[in-house]
Amino acid sequence: MLAGIEFGAVVRSLDGGQTWSGHRRGALRDCHSLTFHATNGNWAYQAGGSGGGASFSQDGGITWHKNKNGLAKNYGVSCACDPQKPEIWYVSVAPGPGKAYGVAAEAYLYRATGSAEWQPIGWEPHPLRSMPIALVTAPNQPGQLYAGLTNGQVWHSADYGETWQKLPFDLPPIRRSMILVESDNRG
Questions:
Q1: Does 183 map to a domain?
Q2: Of the candidates 23, 118, 122, 129, which lies 20 to 30 Å from 153 by C-alpha distance?
Q3: What percent of the residues of the chain are helix, what percent strand, and what percent coil, each to the nearest 5?
Q4: 3-state secondary structure of 149
């Protein structure tokens, strides 16, 4: 079990939360988003604001590796990973909290393969005008990525972020997270 604490640490428990480790070396202390891969629990991912933007683990959170090569900014806000290829992951970043959560965002959205350099993705040139505050992938559907924005828009990519389509609705402003509910189409 891993827990990320904003302005604190990333800690690990091996006994269901009865006891916790100290901060995991290499993880970001200002944790904003923390997730495990859906089918490979060795992979964990983090977006944070303490001087790196993003880090990942390939051993269940024991050791962490910062991955900032190619990021324009280093204040990580949200992260997600491909459901079938654990080495492919995504992060949204900004220059700082004022530009991440404010009205006039200066946002960036990236994709990386493991520790390779980040590649910018998105539907408009960077910086984006609204923060991708929620990143969600679809289970059993590789390449599918949804980005929920602070302005209420939801964008979808079916090809690992290469091309995007705005979904035909707007939500109230998204402030933190988003969930994806899949239907089996059986009525």
A1: no
A2: 118
A3: 5, 40, 60
A4: strand
